[in-house]
């Protein structure tokens, strides 16, 4: 078993190292990065242009997506200075023409691009690809770009270079790569920024002044944002500037940001919860199945449109959670003790904020998830209902999805993953919604139940419990019975029922409402058409009333939750026994 | 006579900010030695002594919560302040409404620790017992120069002296076994360009030993 890394950056660096060891992962080494490249300039050996090839992948609908290829790292650009990349760049730099409508600027960019490559020529004079590239740059006329095939589409996009009849790009050659690495090493040695102890590895290294940007966090800058950044001077301490406030070695900064960018680019490991983008990963290759389950529970109902996929999701979850509940995880998972990490990031200005960072083993997280799912289990779910993902639960807290408190989403996820009590705000929000719209559906009942069990230590069963010790529960049952009688007395032809009018207030202030409801109840009873039914109902109301000593004038919030659950259970009970009556009302 | 002290500290919230995540603050999992030193200095400090935290016992499980606060984005430039002092006039004001920065923080809640520390005499007469007595007397009576805090000023710490022979309060079962927290800030070396020093925090049943600053373990 590998040890847990409690720090975020060290865990990411370890993940990078794992990727690096895995030849199938195609991970960028130090000084290289994976970039989106759309076109390729194909050259003859003498540097003349052979063709201009579109290398984008075409999706099913013909939508072109740039290819992600490994290139010498340009390190990003900012400001207006000229900074060409090595052996690849956008058409402005690489060909001297782009779609920005500033030919003079493009000409300068091309000039800078040419100079950069020329400066490497004496080192790389034996590499025929690079020599051809230089010859091409010497003779290329930017105006010629406009007559290239697909120029309208290509303008401004990234291009790379390749020799005709070769599979690999110019920058893929061993000589070019090692020359680039040597160049970087020289550059770092030359500038010689401060050296120090990297707080990630504890080893001495050149310290990073700026950290690479992290992309793929929803809501953040599209060019990326940084976790480690000091973009205003109020954030700096002890007279240190920029990231010297947090000494991280250049190599560690590169490793962690590469690993994190990779995780964030992987749709299978990323979900959105509230305003946070959450990624999860495992240190072991066998952790993949756990990652899939996490996606299902936290995820965005990906399989909704696709029945087969949806069914697969449900069955995968079921197998997994059953195994966790019965302590058989070791059989269901190949490596239950593998470390498992959950990172929630949310943007704030141009920075990233670590919303939560949870470290554990696959087994521990699985057990917490299964406990959570067990607590949510309440009667009334239909067999084809999707699993209660966190997102679905949160929908019940607000009138519309965008009104969900972002903070709340994060706290719920933290509670579930950390095995902690649920946030009180979740419970309050659901009670408030029930009071506002008088809807008590399966999901709301599930939230109330889970909260009461975890936070209040109340005992709440999956279905009706006639011997529940708490009066609030029976008050809810009584309300359900009274409502039922009203419905039956009017043959379900009511515009509004007692529930529409009194549900919330009956839960909050029973003494003010119930005497009135009982008076109404007498009228309803008299109107009932069937004697048999009337007697059944009178018995039920009698049975419930027998468990109540009095109507309390006020119920505290957690008791209101019990009230609603009592109501929900009793109501479900009516339908369980008589499935032919109005199944629509199941959710009501 | 034992020359070390043991102090229990606890509080509702704490933020021992990680340097790498200090803008959008994220706390370390445990009390850092420099924060512990700050607490001791709040209770008793004299120019003649220098506190040295030797061990930290973590009592409560690690729980996080998050919050956002409004802060400012700029410092008043030192040059302006110096010019104002010299010239006797000038504007030093800063308007928070114009320079607001909302910052998020992921902080600890319900923390409790036992700090074990001793001190070096760096000046004056070499009467360690005097300083020890003063610290113990002050800590016992709950006296302090300023209110000690848990990492950030806004998270006050309660404290109580653990007397000789008094057992360490129970440690939460979550801490059973060994836990490696990676590199944690030990302290800042103010005499050497304010260089931060880190140490490998390995907890055994929640107890971490802090190497002295300048120790091989700190710098590696």
TrEMBL record, chain A:
One Pfam family it belongs to: Cas_Csd1
Domain of life from the UniProt record: Bacteria
NCBIfam families per UniProt: cas_Csd1
Full protein name: CRISPR-associated protein (Cas_Csd1)
Organism for this UniProt entry: Aquisphaera giovannonii
